[in-house]
Design goal:
150 residues; mainly alpha; 7 helices; globular; disordered N terminus
Amino acid sequence: MSDTFQDRSRIGTSSSFEVFFSLRGSLSRDAWRWAMIASASVFLLGVSLLCGSEEASLAPPTTKAGWLLLVAWYFGQVTVVALLCAKRLLDIPRPLWLALPIPMAGLLGGIAAVMHWHPFGVPMALFAVLASTAALPALLACALYEPDDV
């Protein structure tokens, strides 16, 4: 039996909860990519439902409850991406601490989104972009390496 077939059969038995919200199990590189695409798609669908209005497409929420719901949705997405990267880093011989900048960049991005009206909002957004570059090694390691590539 080939390795790719074994990986696919192992992933087929995992529930979606185990794939997206647990560190148990393993993800192949292809499964990790599909999980990232699925999480980004669900995130964008949620944002379009939360921010969509009849007047404008992707208009920001006008109520405080709308903003809080959007920020909670954003932090949920950051959590899922960090868990997917940590799970993938556990499968390949790379240090798990590479996934630590992902939630930090997400936290700064969320704060920048909430502070969009504040004078510190733009510098916070720029700092979030800078912090997200620290997450690139983890994303590259997850996307490029297999357990055999030592």
